[in-house]
Amino acid sequence: MDQVNILIIEDDAKIASLLKTHIQKYGYTAFTVEDFAKVMDDFRDVRPHLVLIDVNLPMFDGFYWCRQIRTLSTCPILFISARESEMDQVMALENGADDYITKPFHYEVVVAKIRSHLRRAYGSYSAKSEERTVEASGLVLYPERFMLTYEGQSVELTQKESVLVEALMKKADRVVSRGRLLDLMWEDRHFIDDNTLNVYITRIRKKLKELGFDDPVETVRGAGYMLRLEGKG
Predict the structure, then answer these.
(1) Which of 35, 48, 117, 153 is deepest in the core (most CB within 10 A)?
(2) 67-92 residue pLDDT tens
(3) Which residues contact residue 101 at a Cβ distance below 8 angstroms, ignoring those fewer than 6 apart?
(4) What is the pLDDT of residue 182?
(5) Coil, helix or strand at residue 52
(6) Do residues 204 and 217 lie in contact, with contact meaning Cβ atoms separated by under 8 Å?
């Protein structure tokens, strides 16, 4: 991947400009949205590998645009917002976001998170000769495409959902601790609210149900989660 495109959806022109300047110092190509009636037009034109988006925007809020982006792409979406409530962060995750950064922020922290999400989503940016898959009882995960399939049906995942499903599938019918899942999904788990993992588990349960599974993710109190696939495959 020769060029990494980052789309900034931020209506504060000063913050958007500073973000763009700082991001481009690290070799990324950054674009800012100017007309907030045409966010999806910009998204289609830029085809970003990652999106930075504010909650408070003209016309429609960031949650709305996050949902729209998710109909087209599984690229990492990072919210940047002055709204600090737990509900806002949960709302962002439930609408398809991968991370939430509160203002005021250090630009170095934003770039570090960008690099982390790009690394997790796209690896070393080099094409692989053979696609990696993870299988368990007929359930097949394609981590590089964020896709989960079972008996001819498929669902799309976000990058973090893919990490979560892979961890559970690799230890199918065994408990994976909450701490282990948090470490895999976030490099710095100290800033992650305890409810955040619960949100992702709920989203995974819904997607597995779409594939015909009857709530196979079991909560093991005081320990973690277990993916039960007995009788499947």
Answers:
(1) 48
(2) 999 888 889 999 999 888 888 889 99
(3) 78, 79, 80, 81, 109, 110, 113
(4) 87
(5) strand
(6) yes
